[in-house]
Write a structure and sequence with these properties.
Elements (H helix, E strand, L loop, with lengths): L8 E5 L4 E7 L4 E5 H8 L3 H13 L5 H4 E7 L5 E8 H11 L1 H47 L8 H24 L17 H17 L14 H9 L2 E2 L2 E2 L4 H15 L6 H15 L14 H13 L5 H13 L3
Antiparallel strand pairs: 1-2, 2-3, 3-5, 4-5, 6-7
Helix pairs in contact: 1-2, 2-4, 4-5, 5-6, 6-12, 7-10, 8-9, 9-10, 9-12, 10-11
């Protein structure tokens, strides 16, 4: 391991000491060398070194995981490789030397890291959104150029169509990868099917699939009152306001909950995809204003599988992904 020479350095000050601290926002930790540890805890370097050796000897920490080499220029002008110790090692030594000092330092380090990480996220988001607006503006120009009589070859028009059609998808996936997805501007309202309507639609799908040998009688068979409860939850109000106030939020949660809650004995993913499309159709959102489908069969299958394989801890991210996809395809 090694630390980055460009890592920001901040000053830790307490009532009795001042120490320069190197931040590592990528690994969400801080680094101090042996002398800085001695300054922090008011002990001789030999004492700190002994505690570190005992920490590694007792297998409390893995040396490879908490120690990093960093090139440091000394007073004599020469560059030396110096060992730096991360926050886990600092706190471990602190408990062996002075836990109150370690606690104060941990609180300070956590607070400082959080501030830097938040600021970095904000700056990254601002930079990304600026780039996204520039790309979208460029795509608008490309789209306009595509109407030019000069671009009359099938190949040329096809390339322009691909670039403009999928530019928004690329932006959406980048936002997803970088954790920058937010809820989009969405269409208020959205009528959910009644239990009878949903059940009738699923029964028709089941009959069709069974006729083709692609499902058994277990397909979409209710497990208790799972579907009724699910639809009721989606239609509930909180303090007089709809809990899911837009077409996009209702559609996204409908797909997610049917996949994840398993209200049927079999065929939950297929049922979820069908109810998702059925809901969009009922609310006039299955096709874009240009007459293209909001999502094709391959995309729907991929999205449903993505929801199925997603970690429940990432639920809100998945919901925002689906909502952004729908909002961007009007």
């Amino acid at each position: 391991m090694h630390t980055d020479n460009q890592s920001p350095v901040v000053i830790y000050e307490s009532a009795d000491t001042t120490v320069e601290v190197r931040l590592d926002t990528d690994q969400e930790t801080v680094w101090l060398n042996l002398q800085q540890l001695a300054d922090l805890f008011g002990r001789d370097k030999s004492v700190i070194s002994r505690h570190l050796k005992n920490t590694f000897r007792d297998a409390e920490l893995d040396r490879e995981a908490v120690v990093a080499k960093n090139a440091t220029t000394a007073a004599d002008g020469k560059t030396y490789q110096v060992d730096y110790y991360n926050l886990d090692a600092i706190i471990s030594v602190g408990y062996r030397v002075s836990s109150s000092r370690a606690t104060r330092f941990r609180q300070w380090a956590t607070r400082t890291l959080r501030q830097h990480l938040t600021q970095g996220w904000t700056l990254n988001r601002q930079r990304f959104e600026t780039n996204a607006r520039e790309l979208e503006a460029a795509m608008a120009l490309v789209r306009k150029a595509a109407q030019s009589p000069a671009l009359d070859t099938t190949c040329g028009r096809g390339l322009v169509d691909i670039v403009t059609r999928y530019a928004q998808t690329f932006l959406l996936l980048q936002r997803y990868d970088e954790g920058l997805l937010t809820e989009p501007q969405a269409q208020p309202g959205g009528r959910l099917p009644s239990l009878f309507e949903a059940r009738t639609a699923l029964d028709a799908l089941k009959a069709d699939l069974m006729a083709r040998g692609e499902a058994t009688d277990l397909f979409a068979r209710d497990r208790g009152e799972g579907l009724d409860s699910l639809l009721g939850n989606l239609d509930q109000s909180v303090f007089g306001e709809p809990a899911y106030p837009t077409v996009e939020s209702k559609a996204a949660h409908l797909l997610y909950f049917v996949v994840k809650n398993h209200p049927f004995s079999d065929g939950n993913k297929r049922s979820a995809a069908y109810l998702f499309v059925d809901f969009l159709h009922r609310n006039g959102r299955l096709m874009t204003t240009a007459g293209d489908p909001v999502i094709n069969d391959v995309g729907l299958a991929a999205l449903t599988l993505l929801v199925a394989e997603s970690n429940p801890a990432n639920k809100e991210t998945m919901i925002r992904l689906i909502m952004n996809m729908l909002a961007g395809a009007r």
